[in-house]
Specification:
The structure is a homodimer. Chain A is mostly helical and about 200 residues long. Chain A is built from twelve helices and no strands. Chain A starts with a helix and ends with a helix.
Chain lengths: ~200, ~200
């Protein structure tokens, strides 16, 4: 039996569900917002999405992951932006080269991002997880800067500063109603960071 | 029976141990470094310090707290530095006004700080706790800046930047041998942050 046949067999056993991951994510976010994160079970999420628990576990290891599975894509897009930034800029500008592609992805997700932010803010355990994810993101950005020849400590400082700018802009974005404002808020927060660290004359 | 008499009674029941907290901390750090954090028990820490488990729990809620009980003092000293900074400086300079008193406290503790950093770096759970403590510190600094009239987002950006500078300087300090170098490393890291965020011409 060739590998192709095995794969076909697996595909037939696994009923294909159109956008199962998206439906599960939407159902989970709705339930977390309605009933609270702690009170929501995986069974309820699957039921709301019209899918089985087994399907849920094909996409997520647990209900918490529904809120954090986007972190890999975020890191990937941002790191690619850093890798492709023009040469000669200061380290924070290299980090900020990822803002444009990030804004493009995020502007389709304001409603989701806002609900997610509210759910996380209401739960200390989720806030800790978010913090750890952001720290991991800063670590990846640091490595991307080092790969571009930035010295280790300078890379760490610039990566952390970039993640701080992103977090501040993100918090502002979910508190207003224009999905396309994220780009501008990133630029505003970046400028504000530069101002708060620059000695006044 | 007056409150004073009750207090006297409690003081008599509680045998006074000279610098029990310091002895327990020293014993814990030594054991964590020798055997590993996970492998060390509170009983062993108390025994090494020549004290009882009961005495241990008078000072710490668990063995993890031995590593993090200094965080309150750190925050207190730093926030006092921010509150007492001269007016008119940019927000990050106000945050950095806490560096001088911090350096004074820390320079007596290089050996401890180095062992502690190694123990924490070897244990993901402790690294998460450290991250959360630093985030709490940034939150306190932000409030101290807001109390001085700095706008909320600017305060958050400056507080986070200050904590990043502190962390980078701290990591450098425990990797070298001069206890008094912390002051200089804080200044160097601060300057470096300013450089990485300033647009190159």
């Amino acid at each position: 039996m060739s590998l192709g046949v095995i794969e076909l067999g697996l595909a037939l056993m696994t009923r294909w569900e159109p956008d199962a991951k998206g439906r599960l994510t939407k159902a989970a976010i709705e339930l977390f917002a309605e009933r609270g994160y702690d009170e929501t079970t995986v069974s309820e999420i699957a039921e709301r999405a019209g899918l089985t628990k087994r399907t849920f576990f094909r996409y997520f290891t647990d209900k918490r992951e529904v809120l954090f599975s986007g972190a890999e894509q975020l890191a990937e897009v941002w790191v690619a932006g850093v890798a492709g930034a023009p040469a000669g800029a200061e380290p924070l500008a290299i980090v900020a080269a990822g803002f444009e592609p990030l804004a493009e992805i995020f502007e389709e997700r304001l409603a989701f991002a806002r609900l997610r932010a509210q759910i996380i803010a209401a739960n200390p355990e989720l806030m800790e997880r978010e913090l750890i994810k952001l720290q991991g993101l800063a670590g990846e950005l640091k490595l991307a800067l080092v790969a571009r020849g930035v010295a280790l400590d300078a890379a760490l400082l610039a990566a952390q500063a970039g993640v701080t700018v992103f977090s501040v802009a993100f918090a502002r974005w979910v508190q207003q109603d224009d999905p396309e404002a994220f780009r501008r808020l990133l630029a505003v927060s970046l400028e504000e960071l530069r101002e708060v660290v620059t000695p006044s004359r």
